[in-house]
Amino acid sequence: MKFNKKKGVLIFLLILLLAILVYNYIYQEHRNISTELPVTTITADKLFLNFKKDFSGSENEYLDKTIIINGSVSELNTYDLTLDNMVFCNFKDRIPSTIKINSNIEIKGRMLGYDELLEIIKIDQSIITK
Questions:
Q1: 91: three-class secondary structure by DSSP
Q2: Residue 43 is assigned to a structural domain of this protein
Q3: Strand partners for 43
Q4: How many domains, in total, are found in the chain?
Q5: Are the C-beta atoms of 110 and 124 separated by less than 8 Å?
Q6: Domain membership of residue 88 as a residue range
Q7: Residue pLDDT, tens place only, 47-86
Q8: What's the distance, Cα to Cα, between the start and end of the chain in Å?
Q9: Are 51 and 114 in contact (CB under 8 A)?
Q10: How far is 14 from 12, CA to CA, in rounded Å?
Q11: Does residue 17 belong to any structural domain of this protein?
Q12: Quick one: angle between helices 55-62 and 44-53, nearest 10?
């Protein structure tokens, strides 16, 4: 079988293109929640009730979307807090020391889903908006 230079170059270019596509797929930039527009603004208790009433419908509506949640801080740690004992919010940065238990705040974040075992809604990439 005779080696053809044109076929060799074409195969090399196809492999290179495939490698570039795979690399870009694996190492794509993370979403910047702070610049995304939220799909809704909702209270922690209403969001929780929506999941209790219609799990699959709420999951379709909110899952992996940016939302704003209002509520009262019921648990507070260095990088996470819980609103109204129903919505767990994880932060990339430290939570400001001005936030205290029972503070009413507004949080923007990405909906991860509802944990049926712990009966809590999980949000990540959270930022405090008010």
A1: strand
A2: yes
A3: 70
A4: 1
A5: yes
A6: 33-128
A7: 999 988 888 888 888 888 999 999 999 999 999 999 999 9
A8: 71
A9: yes
A10: 5
A11: no
A12: 130
| Residue 124, C-beta contacts closer than 8 angstroms, at least 6 positions apart | 89, 90, 109, 110, 112
CATH code at 82? 2.40.50.140
Residue 15 or residue 31, greater confidence: 15
Q: Tens digit of pLDDT for each residue in 19-34? A: 888 877 777 667 788 7
Residue 14 lies in a domain: no
The per-residue b/e assignment along 7-27, b for 16 or more CB within 10 angstroms, e otherwise, is: eeeeeeeeeeeeeeeeeeeee
Tens-digit pLDDT profile for residues 86-130 = 999 999 889 998 999 999 999 999 999 888 888 899 999 999 998
- 60: tokens are 């379709």
What b-and-e string marks burial along 38-54, b requiring 16 or more CB atoms within 10 Å of the CB? eeeebbbbebbebbeee
CB 90 within 8 A of CB 80: yes
Question: Which amino acid is located at 7 in the chain?
Answer: K
In a domain, 51, yes or no: yes
- Closest by CA to 123, choosing from 4, 40, 24, 12, is 40
